[in-house]
Design brief:
- The protein is of the alpha+beta class.
- It has one domain.
- Helix content is 55%, strand content 14%.
- It contains four helices and four strands.
- Strand 3 and strand 4 form a beta hairpin.
- It is elongated and about 60 Å long.
- The protein starts with a strand and ends with a strand.
């Protein structure tokens, strides 16, 4: 088990938790900020974001930023598919491929993988213990 502890009183606690999901690292969640999350809220990154939003732990602005990252990834995938389907002219194809790759890798790839990772959470003696299932 990782010794990393995420405190809900920290300003960027959700970002830190999603980084752990992305990297497949376990952590201990200490709800010292009183967000009110339960172990079932840590099953996936998407469930964590939804629960944090519902219980008031994360602003709508933060949720919008996460969704924007997902949107950027989707646009990047679309650009790559468009470039592969219609390879004329060569300059447009190169722009679509480079732009699409940039959007997928930089925009939302990490957010997408973080939201889909499955984790197991349980109440521990010092907080909620969160571990990857794989």
């Amino acid at each position: 088990m990782s010794a990393d502890v995420i405190h809900s009183s920290a300003p960027r606690w959700l970002d830190t938790a999603l980084e752990h999901y992305r990297d497949g690292r376990g952590f201990r969640f200490d709800d010292d900020g009183g967000v009110g999350l339960q172990p079932r809220d840590f099953a996936t990154g998407l469930k964590l974001v939804a629960a944090a939003s519902k219980k008031g732990g994360v602003s709508r602005k933060k949720i919008a930023a996460i969704l924007a990252g997902l949107g950027m990834s989707a646009v990047g995938v679309w650009m790559l598919r468009a470039a592969l389907r219609d390879p004329e002219p060569v300059t447009r194809t190169a722009l679509l491929i480079s732009g699409g790759t940039t959007l997928v890798l930089g925009g939302g790839g990490a957010v997408l993988s973080a939201l889909g990772a499955e984790f197991k959470a349980s109440n521990g003696p010092t907080g909620i213990e969160v571990r990857p299932t794989r």
